[in-house]
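Q: Hi! Curious about what Phosphoinositide phospholipase C looks like structurally. Here's the sequence.
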Amino acid sequence: MRSRLRSGILRESRRPFRFQICCCRRDFYFREVSPPSDVQLLFEQYSENGTMTIEHLRRFLVEYQKLKDATREDAMSILHSLRHHIMYRKELNVDHFFRYLLSDHNPPMAPSLGVHHDMNAPLAHYYMYTGHNSYLTGNQLSSDSSSEPIIKALKKGVRVIELDLWPDSRGNKVKVSHGNTLTSPVNLNRCLSATRDYAFIASEFPVVITFEDHLVHAPLLQMVTKTFESKLHQPGTDQLAEFPSPESLKKKILISTKPPKEYLERQSSMEKEYDSAQELSDKEGSDQDEEEKNVFPEYKHLIAIHAGKPKGRLTNSLRIDTSKVRRLSLSEQELEEISQKHGQDLVRFTQKNLLKIYPKCTRFDSSNYDPLLGWMHGAQMAAFNMQGYGKYLWIMEGMFKANGRCGYVKKPDFLLDKDHIFDPAKPLPVKTNLKVTVYLGEGWHLDFKATHFNQFSPPDFFVRVGIAGVPDDTVMKKTRAIEDDWTPVWNQEFEFPLRVPELAILRIEVLEFDTTRHHDFGGQMCVPVSELRTGIRAVPLHSRKGIKYPSVKLLMRFEFEEPDSETENDG
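A: Let's find out. The predicted structure is below.
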């Protein structure tokens, strides 16, 4: 059902917000928002004589909200959630119906969907929630190393943890730190123990630890096997023709690193790149070769995901060995370079092997890059700094809200089709149109101080809404700013043609308008379009750090429509 958008109705409260300007006092009265016209028309359609019964509500859920399996019990559960409004009655009026639509019981993603992707395919068929320098508490140059960021990441559902391993000054222990920087170290045992204890709090699917291994000795092997015991997945061979599935690896921890021999061969180039102070004498090299002979067979079989980067040109890295699989790591600059002319080679490589993308070394502030370039080329591990915040980290968090927040998201079928290798550079037709209506917002007066946004008046909110996706889908649009209002009503509709909806993330951000263009932040939310529920939904907003506000939310409507022939041919 479609209707012409009209402004919502606002009820004025007698409780004023007072602002002092010099010797003058200004009072602004808070206005409680009431149902917009679209909601009122829907209520009229699904009610009788001003009353919505349980059966009426069930019909609304099935027909308009597209919850095809909704039952009378589901409708009863909604009534029960509103019991402080309706007491013991078994029907709703329009205000009760509006309260339900704007409640936490009507989110934009299905809360009970859980893990619903096929988890029996090889690991290479999934995007994996991946951290970079997972032990750092802040910036990449001088912050402390700790096990706490690892715990925090695992609680969020991150499934790939990265540790940089170095010998301590005495050479008999292993420390974790960002080499050749002023970051303080943390003992490896603490990091391993934290991983063991928190690995499966948020998800039962496997955790991968990638070692950037700057040492080769037996204690590492002993520490890993002793800490993880039966949780450690040991393939027993380095000749895997295909990675196992996430389902088969539930509650297992996997080690991914370069075998010692490969590390020794590239040691000199690593030292040069990072301006290492370490210099190995011929005798030390000989001693390490001898140690490698003793450690290599066991350590090699401990590695569940072998990492390796062939010498020579960058394109050599994409050669596929049909007899075994591996992990390749590329910097964000290397990905940009190789994707320009070899996009299909990247897609083909990632159908069987794992590709990890890591931030460039100049991101000292722990900022991040756009993960979509990697995802559209099939890269499973877009490694992110989790220490800060920003739009790219919000997009990453939005992506991994999918599939029950388990940390694994199945790649789209078109990236796995071996007979027709996807070409990311080729223009694509529009698959679907997403229509988004931004009705209104509320809750800021409860979660923020009266003068948080403006010392002299209520806030002037506007909403930015758009898509993070492949280049042709990526766009941001905005509503008008509503002046001096804690409960703004926008009633604005936007349309987004989507060519690759499978990789599209809906971005929503509320800002408080400032004439200097330094707008204040009022909340954000990112949702994978693939799991966006149609109909009218309450969208909870989150802080910069991704923490959900208790009260702030938007009322929005989402619709998918088939593209017309003119739009479809835009690609």
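A: A fun detail: The chain has three domains: 37-102, 123-269+305-415, 432-561.
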